């Protein structure tokens, strides 16, 4: 009986063959599936786009009156309360200001002295001086008349040989002296004060009048009245409080006319323009939104804490006395607004190192790099001005975050 040798395969060889078959199957499978990437996508659509800039700001009145103490004193009475509506001229606060009373009395005394000096100057002297001057003038006239009479009598006697020439000469000398004395007295009555004396007295009077006006103003400020109609929104003092000069007493404003002083970071300043619409929100009234517009754009950059900001003024258009002064608010300025423009999600936009913008358009389940031009860009969407139509679909990102998008990549759109 013939014998047949049976040759068996080595177990290690069988294992290697098996692993090779499995590896080949994996390679073949991956060759058919590796390039199909699941991606999220979005249609190119027409939408309204708004670009806005939010920041913080503080409310302040446009027209207000802040009363301050002109001098130290005690609050005698407060006639109003916070929230009260008042009219122009209404009495707000009364201060017991002894210092103002004393200053007014001193100023009035100085004015009386200056007025008396001016009266004396205009009348040629005080009453005592004028009486004394009149007496001197009467005596001088009597002396003159006596000298004239004596001279006339001596001249008659000289003609008769009863008086010498020396006696007549002496009489003439006495008459000249009497005439000179009378002339001096008359000059004293009509030209007592010189031009510099008059100017000095007039200056003293003007200074005294100004002093009284200032003192009266200070005294009047003890009774503080509002120069405008509005609402009392702050009274930081109480009755019987002692206040120092310059201390804030009461604040009044027309709360229908308010503005916001807002601070924008330096990179955002260039987007601001007068007239841009603004929305305002306040945490104190979360169900209320106010509207306004930019009235003044920043003219310089200042340090605001750790920020470099520009100061912007925003007028509130629909205030109804419900936005309080000094409150902190959030304002949002609409810097650009476009209606019914072609747009895509911002996530779909890519930028080359050269600065050109592009998107991955999906055509026949493959990605196609498409250059685009953009317009308004906000936080969510991008306006497309050229490169796409409303029939296009663009890729946003791979469903598997580890995969990168590339031109020609086969894709499958998933939600």
The run of helices and strands is HEEEEEEHHHHEEEEEEEEEEEEEEEE
Determine the fraction of residues in helical runs and give it as a percent range.
Answer: 25-40%
Shape type: rod-shaped
Cα radius of gyration in angstroms: 52 Å
**Main β-sheet, in a few words?**
6 strands, antiparallel, barrel
Task: Report, as a whole number of angstroms, the end-to-end distance.
Answer: 75 Å
Number of helices: 5
**Whole-number average pLDDT?**
84
**Beta-strand content:** 35-45%
| E-strand count | 22
Helix-strand makeup class: alpha+beta
Uncertain segments: 1-6
Count of discrete structural domains: 4
Strand order of the largest sheet: 2-11-15-13-12-16
Protein name: Multidrug resistance protein MdtA-like barrel-sandwich hybrid domain-containing protein
Region (Disordered): 179-201
InterPro entries: MdtA-like_BSH, RND_pump_MFP, UPF0194_transport
Organism: Edaphobacter dinghuensis
């Amino acid at each position: 009986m013939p014998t047949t040798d049976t040759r068996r395969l080595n177990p290690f060889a069988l294992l290697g063959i098996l692993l090779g078959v499995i590896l080949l199957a994996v390679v073949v499978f991956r060759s058919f599936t590796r390039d199909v990437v699941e991606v999220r996508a979005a249609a190119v659509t027409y939408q309204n786009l708004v670009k806005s800039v939010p920041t913080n700001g503080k409310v302040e009145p446009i027209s207000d009156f802040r009363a301050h103490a002109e001098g130290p004193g005690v609050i005698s009475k407060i006639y109003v309360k916070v929230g009260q509506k008042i009219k122009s001229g209404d009495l707000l606060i009364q201060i017991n200001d002894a210092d103002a009373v004393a200053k007014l009395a001193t100023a009035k005394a100085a004015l009386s002295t200056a007025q008396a000096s001016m009266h004396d100057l205009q009348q040629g002297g005080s009453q005592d001086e004028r009486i004394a001057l009149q007496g001197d003038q009467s005596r001088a006239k009597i002396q003159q008349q006596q000298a004239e009479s004596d001279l006339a009598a001596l001249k008659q006697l000289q003609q008769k040989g009863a008086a010498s020439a020396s006696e007549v000469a002496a009489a003439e000398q006495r008459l000249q002296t009497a005439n000179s004395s009378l002339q001096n007295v008359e000059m004293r009555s009509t030209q007592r004060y010189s031009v510099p004396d008059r100017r000095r007295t007039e200056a003293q009077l003007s200074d005294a009048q100004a002093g009284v006006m200032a003192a009266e103003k200070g005294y009047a400020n003890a009774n503080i009245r509002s120069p405008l109609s509005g609402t009392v929104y702050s009274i930081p003092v109480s009755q019987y409080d002692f206040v120092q000069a310059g201390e804030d007493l009461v604040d009044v404003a027309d709360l229908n006319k308010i503005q916001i002083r807002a601070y924008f970071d330096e990179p955002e300043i260039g987007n601001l323009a007068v007239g841009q619409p603004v929305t305002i929100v306040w945490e104190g009234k979360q169900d209320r939104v106010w509207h306004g517009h930019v009235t003044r754009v920043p003219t310089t950059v200042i340090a605001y804490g750790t920020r470099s900001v520009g100061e912007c003024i925003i007028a509130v258009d629909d205030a109804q006395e419900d936005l309080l002064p000094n409150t902190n608010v959030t304002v949002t300025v609409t810097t650009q607004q476009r209606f019914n423009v072609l747009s895509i999600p911002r996530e779909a936009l890519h930028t080359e190192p050269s600065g050109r913008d592009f998107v991955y358009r999906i055509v026949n389940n493959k990605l196609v790099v498409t250059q685009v031009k953009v317009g308004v860009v906000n936080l969510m969407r991008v306006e497309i001005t050229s490169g796409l139509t409303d029939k296009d679909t663009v890729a946003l990102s791979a469903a598997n975050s580890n995969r990168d998008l590339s031109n020609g990549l086969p894709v499958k759109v998933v939600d």
